[in-house]
Amino acid sequence: MTKILFICHGNICRSTMAQYVLQDMVNKKGIADKFYIDSAATSYEEIGHGVHPGTRNKLSSVGIPCGNHKARRMTKQDYSEFDYIIGMDTANIRNINRIIGDDLEGKVYKLLSFAGQMGDIADPWYTGNFDATYDDVLKGCKGFLKEIGIQ
């Protein structure tokens, strides 16, 4: 089973969006049993809060089910439990590395790197643009599946 942990600052917008987008993709391919997909934050700010209404609304508008994830903070232990730890932006990667220490096993990635881009996924908490965030998340998730050999 491949275990993926998506990370953003608060775990209510981008990382949960990626979690549910990728879950929907593997569900539709009939391979959900081969994956465990979760998300977490690098901060403590939103711990215990549910998925942001903007993320929930965007996912609903494209027919992707959104569960009842509650924000949690990433732990050092997550590094040993997940195969991929995928941040949304450069600041997330920096904060992930502060939490885990050295990425000795090469598990930490930025989501858009799977789409051949080095850019950041904009945080809709600040931009208000959940459509643009969704487009980038979708691009990154498609690239991720292709990277691991799933078309």
From TrEMBL:
Gene3D superfamilies: 3.40.50.2300
EC assignment: 3.1.3.48
Matches recorded under InterPro entries: LMW_PTPase, Ptyr_pPase, Ptyr_pPase_sf, Tyr_phospatase_low_mol_wt
Keyword Amino-acid biosynthesis: no
Top-rank taxon: Bacteria
Pfam families for the chain: LMWPc
Keywords: Hydrolase, Protein phosphatase
Catalytic activity annotation: O-phospho-L-tyrosyl-[protein] + H2O = L-tyrosyl-[protein] + phosphate
All residue ranges annotated as the Phosphotyrosine protein phosphatase I domain in the record: 2-147
UniProt xrefs under CDD domains: LMWPTP (cd16343)
Family listed: Belongs to the low molecular weight phosphotyrosine protein phosphatase family.
Matching PANTHER family: LOW MOLECULAR WEIGHT PHOSPHOTYROSINE PROTEIN PHOSPHATASE (PTHR11717:SF7), LOW MOLECULAR WEIGHT PROTEIN TYROSINE PHOSPHATASE (PTHR11717)
Name used for this protein in its record: protein-tyrosine-phosphatase
Annotated source species: Eubacterium album
Lineage: Bacteria, Bacillati, Bacillota, Clostridia, Eubacteriales
